[in-house]
């Protein structure tokens, strides 16, 4: 079985064959990670946890290429994922009416944690022209290192490095830098759990580190999720 993790989560592993010994195409690797997020139907509930602060409840509802995050009754956003692009929208009422998500809100921290809206969506996986930079062992696992440059000016991230697990084709670690190359943030998969259908895995714990320019960890936030629930329930969308 291969891991499968949703948006922030499903995108962290792809349902694809293990990567071959020869150097793979970087864009194909990133595309495979993206597309894995469109293959699931499940509900995830959990918390965003930062030491010394109250837990922030978070729910994620996945219906194939549609995902909806609930951070509170009034803070909900929706992602529609295509093959080559994703649209991020905010949900404005109980009928599921949506409007474009404000770009100015992408870098906003959620309840004072290290996690932003930009982090949850992993929208950089849709940036074009990924480049394979080599192979590295990261936290004991053999990985390909892929660089992705921001083609625009929105958000805080100018360049992102993705370490893709050589065996599973999953992202194992991500490090984001600003437009001047300064390290900002690092994402690590810490633990996984089985999907309801038993055919794969989803995220149980994700660590988000804020970084100093010399890569020291200055602050930590955890995303922790309960056992996933599958089912035919629909969320409202316009």
UniProtKB/TrEMBL annotation:
Keywords: Lipoprotein, Signal. InterPro entries: TP_0789-like. Coiled coil: none annotated. Residues 1-21 form the signal peptide. Residues 97-227 form the Uncharacterized protein TP-0789 domain. This is Outer membrane lipoprotein-sorting protein. It comes from Luteolibacter luteus.
């Amino acid at each position: 079985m291969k891991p499968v993790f949703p948006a922030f989560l499903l995108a962290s592993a792809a349902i694809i064959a293990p990567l071959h010994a020869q150097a793979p195409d970087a864009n194909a690797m990133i595309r495979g990670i993206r597309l894995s997020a469109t293959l699931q139907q499940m509900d995830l509930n959990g918390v965003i946890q930062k030491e010394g602060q109250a837990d922030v409840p978070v729910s994620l509802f996945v219906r194939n290429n549609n995902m909806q995050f609930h951070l509170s009754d009034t803070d909900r956003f929706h992602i529609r994922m295509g093959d080559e692009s994703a649209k991020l929208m905010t949900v404005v009422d109980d009928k599921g009416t949506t409007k474009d998500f404000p770009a100015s809100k992408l870098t906003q921290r959620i309840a004072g944690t290290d996690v932003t809206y930009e982090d949850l969506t992993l929208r950089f996986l849709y940036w074009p022209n990924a480049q394979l930079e080599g192979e590295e062992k990261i936290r004991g696992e053999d990985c390909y290192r892929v660089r992705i440059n921001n083609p625009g000016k929105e958000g805080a991230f100018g360049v992102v490095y993705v370490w893709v697990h050589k065996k599973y084709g999953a992202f194992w670690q991500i490090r984001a830098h600003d437009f001047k190359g300064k390290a900002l943030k690092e994402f690590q998969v810490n633990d996984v759990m089985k999907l309801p259908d038993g055919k794969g895995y989803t995220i149980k714990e994700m660590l988000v580190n804020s970084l100093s320019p010399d890569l020291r960890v200055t602050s930590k936030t955890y995303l922790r999720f309960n056992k996933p629930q599958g089912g035919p329930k629909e969320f409202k969308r316009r």
